[in-house]
Amino acid sequence: MESVQELILESHYTPSSHWIVTSNHGYISYAQEELRRSFGQLKSRMLVPGEMALMELPAGSAEAMERWQQEPPIFGRHIQPVHLAVKRAEGLTSGPAQQLEAMCASWLERLSACTGLQAGGGTRVAVHIRSGGARTEEDKAVREAFLSLIERLGGEAVLAEPDVIVSIVIGEEAIYAGMMTPGEAGSDWPGGAMRFQREEGQISRAKFKLLEAERTFGLDYSAYRHALDVGAAPGGWTSLLLERGVHVTAIDPANMHPSLLGHPRLTYVKRNAADVPVEPNEFDLLVCDMSWSPKATAEMVIRLLDGVIAGGTILVTVKLMHKKPLQTIRDVTAMYAEHAQIIGAKQLFHNRDEITLYMMKS
Ligand SMILES: C[S@@+](CC[C@H](N)C(=O)[O-])C[C@H]1O[C@@H](n2cnc3c(N)ncnc32)[C@H](O)[C@@H]1O
Prior knowledge:
By secondary structure, the chain is an alpha/beta fold. It has 9 helices and 17 strands. It has helices at 28-39, 61-70, 97-115, 136-152, 182-185, 206-216, 236-243, 294-304, 325-337, and strands at 4-6, 17-22, 43-48, 52-57, 78-81, 84-88, 124-131, 156-157, 164-170, 174-180, 226-230, 247-251, 266-269, 283-288, 308-319, 340-346, 354-361. The strands form 3 sheets. It has a 7-stranded mixed β-sheet with strand order 13-12-11-14-15-17-16, with helices on both faces. A 6-stranded mixed β-sheet has the order 1-6-10-9-7-8. Helix 3 packs across helix 4 and helix 6 (206-216) crosses helix 7 (236-243). The protein is elongated and about 70 Å long. Mean pLDDT is 92; it is low at 1-5. The structure holds S-adenosylmethionine (SAM).
């Protein structure tokens, strides 16, 4: 225990709670701005430039969590509580393994005392270790110490579907630890970074975006009958919907991947979406991943909504091509809100300079 000591987290508010907030790279200031608007004020310290910060909010944990469950942040991809912070001394992992394990045991004990959650007695426990720099050896040693500790306590170390997550962020100056259920973490992926296996013959990485949207928004694509995919080429999204048994009408002046052509459930309209007429009530799902100005895209999608049944699902990526993403999102959602109910807006892990909007046609 010589190498660590308790760090008293600075407290500027009463009540207050501390969180590690993670965004896609370059978007942490927008995550911070969203939380500042929601909570009035906050204190923030960058842990990983552009993507991870320690934030103190002027609200207790339960109140803060309730607030972003009601009003989920768009750019705060992952928000996890900090229950314990210890100053980080040099050579965290240079001593014998037992020393590190004893240290982790003491953290775990304090985390359990603080949260009422247990890591032993048959509990399925995921250990998430994150660090900013390239300290992979250190991350590995801390993970192994936790895994052997959990095993000794009679818990089951798992990667997916845990009952409890022990989350450790190894910063330059301190180590921040939290213990939570997946519901409280909002994700059982470390930092909300949902990863999928690349498949043999996969048409585009864009497919991951639609897969992540399905999980994030709790959808099931196999429940849809006929989808309109606007800006569909080369066909990653179309291929996923076809795999789920959906009929797809794909619109794009560019070429679809040859492996999709001739699919019995695919209608390919090789045209600019602005020129394609639509029949009413043809589709129960509209997806659009067009690389175009967000407002022009919104105008085009709104016209095509004539083809979607009332209550139909709409998933649209909104490109943040210009500065002021928060303003862009406000303007675009105001346009859509006249025709649809906005159910979710999120910058997914697989979104680059864009967010995904989830809506229901009015
Ligand atoms: C990012 S790609 C879509 C990738 C696709 N979701 C996938 O999974 O493979 C954007 C597509 O939008 C198409 N696009 C741009 N403007 C369009 C328009 N006016 N009408 C139809 N498609 C358009 C482009 O041709 C391009 O193929």
